[in-house]
Specification:
Two copies of one chain form a homodimer. Chain A is an all-alpha fold and about 180 residues long. Chain A has a domain of about 130 residues: Tetracycline Repressor, domain 2. Chain A is built from nine helices and no strands. In chain A, helix 5 packs parallel to helix 8. The first copy, chain A, starts with a helix and ends with a helix. The first copy, chain A, binds a DNA duplex (18 and 18 nucleotides) through helix 3.
Chain lengths: ~180, ~180
DNA sequence: GTCTATACCTTGATAGAC
DNA sequence: GTCTATCAAGGTATAGAC
């Protein structure tokens, strides 16, 4: 029954995006949900378990997207991905990759593996999208599709980081330019 | 006399790049230097003071670079910047922007301002370099030079993050491709 | 400038009742 | 599944001697 578990994951997701994994505490979770920290520990014995659950939810969402967007053209799929980041931009939050990869060395092996899995999944998806788009004549770019995927995801991730720090419509400018570059 | 202050800054710089600002402690500083944590507090009353000193050192280094490279061609200057990131890649450390911007919201106003100053300085420098290079015929790219600077710095920053998580020569591939894209 | 000593708080985590 | 109660450990920071 308990959707407390899901509420905890959702809140932890938000906290990771705003404060970072190492800066949020069980109290940051339990207080807003009006429960005690022991209740959080019931669902997630330790913090790494919670972190892993958050990443797994993100991976599941990515897989959902991959499935739902399967019939779309490569450039429509790219637009969908950019739209996800635009949502984050409006909320002034960052992406999980941008939040978790800098702290990678402080994570447990199990959590490191999940971070790796998430990064690989997103990059593989983007590389496929770009390669297919290039073959279909939707995109035009030089070099390996995977390298290009690294650059596109890197720009999307950083646009959120820079936006929070520098203000202005950095996200809009970067996402527009990276789209243009692919035509 | 005491160069303890500088040793503390250097060590803190290293720790920020590996564990992140919120994950390292005064003990991480005092133990390797064989001093007590009170001695660290003597030099830096609170943690934000230390963080600010680290960022100021980075800004000073950037300004040194700007000064020393003034006579170099734009593409030689770009190569110098890439070389700095290559060094970080070899050390498996990340850049300060990549480490500090995700945790931005957890910082004191004074430290946030320094992070902002650092980001602006690097981006302005890169934008000038690119614009000058384009005018001189060294570089060729579409759009605003500042937007391009955002994308170049974003790629350099992310190449270090991805390299640590995914292994392989991601830095080499990304830096090579971004250089090619500017020709 | 560095030490000893310590205050005070927050943290992640556990035991056992309900 | 959630609570009360509690814990040990580690965190930042300060006071005062040397």
């Amino acid at each position: 029954m308990s959707n407390t578990r899901e509420k905890i994951i959702e809140l932890a997701d938000q906290l990771i995006r705003t404060k970072g994994f190492n800066a949020f505490s069980y109290a940051d979770i339990s207080a807003p949900l009006d429960i005690k920290n022991a209740a959080v520990h019931y669902h997630f014995p330790n913090k790494a378990d919670l972190g892993i659950a958050v990443i797994e939810q993100e991976i599941a969402r990515l897989n959902d997207g991959i499935h739902q967007w399967k019939k779309l053209s490569p450039d429509a799929r790219l637009k969908k991905m950019i739209a996800i980041f635009q949502q984050r931009y409006k909320q002034r939050t960052i992406c999980l990759v941008g939040s978790l990869t800098p702290d990678y060395d402080t994570f447990s092996p199990a959590m490191q593996q999940k971070v790796q899995e998430m990064c690989k999944g997103i990059l593989d998806w983007m590389a496929d999208c770009l390669e297919e788009g290039r073959e279909a004549g939707n995109f035009s770019f030089e070099g390996d599709a995977y390298d290009r995927a690294l650059m596109v995801m890197s720009n999307l991730m950083s646009s959120l980081l820079y936006s929070r720090v520098l203000g202005g419509n950095i996200f809009g400018r970067m996402s527009k330019q990276l789209s243009k570059d692919l035509i």
